[in-house]
Design goal:
- The longest helix is centred in the C-terminal third of the chain and has 50 residues, at 210-259.
- By secondary structure, the chain is an alpha+beta fold.
- The protein has helices at 3-14, 20-34, 53-67, 94-98, 121-135, 166-175, 197-206, 210-259, 268-279, 285-292, 296-310; strands spanning 35-40, 43-50, 72-78, 84-91, 101-103, 109-111, 136-139, 158-163, 182-186, 189-194.
- Helix content is 53%, strand content 18%.
- It is built from eleven helices and ten strands.
């Protein structure tokens, strides 16, 4: 099961004892994103297609409860991936109950370009739940453990909802700006997406997917810990490399002073630091300063003086 599927299943399990207004909000979101019109000998019907038969049965039950129109399940066979697919057909009258269709004076079905967007907090939640379950997906770095160790360091956080109706997508974008949604176009779809991990976590709270939120937060924390450790390791490695190069320059300077016959005429303070450096070539400035009983800056100044003298003709 993918992470997207687990989030959708968690959302569906959380939907219990919905108020009629919330049920209508959920169904409106589903039909506007996943619904299609079909005409056969029985007339016009609204259809929902999905690989998730439990989701379709849930929609059928809600429609029966709030609209008095239940759906009829049909199995379509398998798709290209070998996964069974299903269709749930609803009487065309359901569109009027949910506010996205009506009949003109000649009894022709007319689809509404704009729908009334929920604004009550409870209805907003179920509306967004319906959107994500019907047209949403989410990708996060794959975690092998609770600390969120990822198989791919380049993995990104990405949540999106894909719409065939651009006008409806724009309604969602404008009405729920607080979600931090962005818009793009991909092939024949309008896509609303979130790439910020904190905003995705907030969205999970909105749709009542708390287990998904906790998993995401574990991954965020794990990545933060790992990135901090990597930065510290890189800093330590850089400091070690810098210290080794400095030691090599200082030892080379001491050797050059001896070759030129200048070493014996050096002040005793410079001879002392030179002897410590030769005896402890891997020692850092703190260790050298401690052995000489001077400050770190003092030790650094004396070593720099050795290099300067070695370069004089």
């Amino acid at each position: 099961m993918t992470f997207s599927q687990s989030v959708k299943n968690e959302i569906l399990k959380s939907l219990r004892h919905l108020k009629p207004c919330c049920s209508k909000g959920f169904l409106t979101a589903v039909f506007k994103t996943s619904g299609s019109l079909k005409l056969d000998y029985n007339g016009i019907s609204f259809c929902l297609d999905s690989e998730n038969d439990a989701f379709l049965k849930f929609c059928s039950r809600l429609a029966k409860e709030v609209c008095g129109i239940g759906g009829k399940m049909e199995e379509n066979g398998v798709n290209a991936k070998g996964t069974p697919t299903y269709t749930c057909k609803f009487n065309g009258e359901i569109g009027k109950h949910l506010g996205f269709s009506n009949n003109d004076g000649f009894n022709f079905l007319l689809l509404q370009q704009a729908v009334k967007m929920p604004t009550e907090p409870c209805c907003v939640r179920t509306f967004l739940q319906g959107l994500f379950v019907s047209c949403g997906s989410v990708m996060i770095p794959f975690a092998e453990d609770d600390l969120g160790e990822s198989k791919s360091a380049s993995s990104k956080y990405h949540l999106e909802m894909r719409f065939t109706d651009e006008d409806f997508a724009n309604q969602v974008l404008q009405t729920y700006q607080h979600l931090g949604l962005h818009k793009t176009t991909r092939k024949n779809y309008t896509v609303l997406y979130i790439k910020n991990s904190s905003a995705i976590a907030d969205f999970f709270v909105y749709v009542n997917a708390m287990s998904a939120k906790l998993k995401l937060e574990n991954i965020i924390i794990g990545r933060s810990i790992r990135n901090t450790a990597n930065r510290q390791r890189n800093c330590i490695e850089a400091n070690i490399e810098k210290a080794v190069l400095a030691s090599e320059r200082q030892l080379s300077a001491i050797a050059e002073l001896k070759r030129k016959g200048l070493y014996q005429s050096l002040p005793q303070s410079l001879k002392d630091v030179a002897e410590i450096r030769q005896e402890f070539p891997e020692a850092n400035l703190d260790e050298i300063a401690s052995r000489l009983g001077i400050s770190k800056s003092g030790a650094n100044h004396r070593l720099a003086r050795l290099i300067q003298l070695s370069q004089n003709d």
